[in-house]
Amino acid sequence: MSTEREAIAEAPASTSGLAGPRFRPGESAFRWMLFACLAIGIVFLGVLLTYVLVEAWPRLDSRLWTNFPSIRRPERAGAQSAISGTIWVIAFTGLFCLPVGIMAAIYLEEYADPDRWYNRLIELNIQNLAAVPSIIYGILGLGLLARQLGLGTTVLTASLTLSLLVLPVVIIASREAIRAVPQSIRQASLALGATQWQTIRRQVLPAAVPGIATGSILALSRAIGEAAPVILLGAVTYVAFNPEGLDSAYTVLPVQIYGWISQSREEFHHLAAAAIVILLVLLLLMNAAAIWLRNRYSKRW
Amino acid sequence: MKNTIASSRRKTIGAAALFLAAALPLSACGGSAGAESQQQDLSGTVKVDGSSTVAPLTTAAAEFYAEEEPEVRVTVGTSGTGGGFEKFCNGETDISDASRPIEDDEKSACRKNGVTYGALTVANDALTVVVNKDADWVDCLTTAQLKKIWEPGSTVDNWNQVDAQFPDESLKLFGPGTDSGTFDYFTEEINGEEGASRTDYSPSEDDNVIVQGVAGSPGGMGYFGYTYFEENQDELKALQINSGKGCVAPGAKTAQDGTYTPLSRPLFIYPSKEALGRDEVLDFVQYYVDNNADIAKDARFIPLSSRQAQQLTSDFDQLKP
């Protein structure tokens, strides 16, 4: 430290910064600190994955997706109803929330006048909604959809509630993607005589697809791991059948995992770990799809 | 330009369709298994929710019943007795599992929504406090002594602190983990609050570990479900419990007649009369009632006494539409 100060004192201030490689403890310490911050996350993830895999190993076989849950015979229990329930619920969540979310984003980006107070109010509320805890959406779904509207605790209620839950995220991600399309593209399209709708449909949306798809899939990945809202909405721990329709009873993986972990017998803990692995695989598949879509369709101007 | 955009859109839609299609094959293969039953073909869904203590019993019933009527779908939730009654009185479930009788505010909620019901006692639950087989100094403890040992913050670590007449023998405690219904029940009855317990004991989710631990230490003590003691009675000694009316030994008989207090209790299911109007619910409860001894045994509860079983049959007959 003292040698450095002497060096600075000797040399003119302007050249010291441009001087060649010299030992700067502050620089490298900062760099190592950044690396350590990254390492904390990675190490914990590694430990978590290893732990889950080790716990799951004895039960990570086809019984998991060919069999239904069983309290009487844990060695024959599986999670087929939870896996298919999760796919049903998430598929319909996507079906409900993606069109609505993307269209809302188009309105806000392309049509809404940002100076109007009501548009600003809507924007502010969407930002706030994205931060509301998921259990609140569960209570809303139970009170409004399941009870008031009489939809009951079904696949439909769960999908609609999860749609509401991830809608703000879909809207925000889609807006970002639409905003990233250069203004010049729109102006060129309009100048050539296209209407606003034609411009959006033929120029803006196709260019924004990678961003919208990535954001939407990440939003659905969030929905897939939710246990809190669906536990209020009738996803129970013993459901030994797959959903057959929107009005069917169902269960999902996070709830099934929760149910097994709260069992006192050791076999169920392995089963829970194995179900966690399945859930992670589903999540990884969805995230891989997001990355693939982004790379496949991304466009540079 | 136009061409490439159009084709890229088609691919996106294709990817979305692929994702949706993944849902279908899984759903197709579940229902058909074992549909060739000769009996009348019942179908429909029976929704059960409530006590997590009773859930293993009802789930066992549902699993047995699925072999008889594979098309009837029984779902069992574990919202707790109170949470179960809330849904039940709202007409959202057909049957409520309960480890205590329905309370007054729950009754009025049911009345308000026009849900009528009956209580059926389907099994008995009992806990056993065990000590080492060679612990000849103790046969019976009062509930106050148990509380002194197990309450939160307790520092009792020697038998002579429980009672001055007991020998100088260090007390080693074993018990179930906090996830277990046994833990909830014991802490509620002995310490007066569910989940309140001293924490410096050796917890295990595996009853076998408790058996081994108590059998292996001269001053050991532990607790678990009575049926588990029955299977291991050669290795351990069960304590009698004095809750103010003298010492009572745990057993099927004292649990069934309700004298082994406070560590035994009846378990209930509450079917709603409205739901019993549906054939699949009626048939499931009928099956539950007819086979209650096998179901209780399988789920490791104490079956009903013959008097309790008669009571159950007559209660159910009154409840039937």
UniProtKB/TrEMBL annotation, chain A:
Q: Which UniProt keywords apply?
A: Cell membrane, Membrane, Transmembrane, Transmembrane helix, Transport
Q: Name one GO cellular component term.
A: plasma membrane
- Location in or out of the cell: Cell membrane
What Pfam families has UniProt attached to this entry? Answer: BPD_transp_1 (PF00528)
Question: Which PROSITE patterns does the record associate with it?
Answer: ABC_TM1 (PS50928)
Q: Which residues form the ABC transmembrane type-1 domain?
A: 83-289
**What are the recorded GO MF terms, alphabetically?**
phosphate transmembrane transporter activity
The family classification in the record reads:
Belongs to the binding-protein-dependent transport system permease family. CysTW subfamily.
The way this protein sits in the membrane is described as: Multi-pass membrane protein
TM spans (from-to): 32-54, 87-108, 129-149, 155-173, 223-241, 271-293
Please, which domain of life does this record's source organism belong to? Bacteria
> CDD domains this protein is in?
TM_PBP2 (cd06261)
**Biological role:** Part of the binding-protein-dependent transport system for phosphate; probably responsible for the translocation of the substrate across the membrane.
A GO biological-process term: phosphate ion transmembrane transport
Q: Which InterPro entries match?
A: MetI-like, MetI-like_sf, Phosphate_PstA
This chain's protein is named: Phosphate transport system permease protein PstA
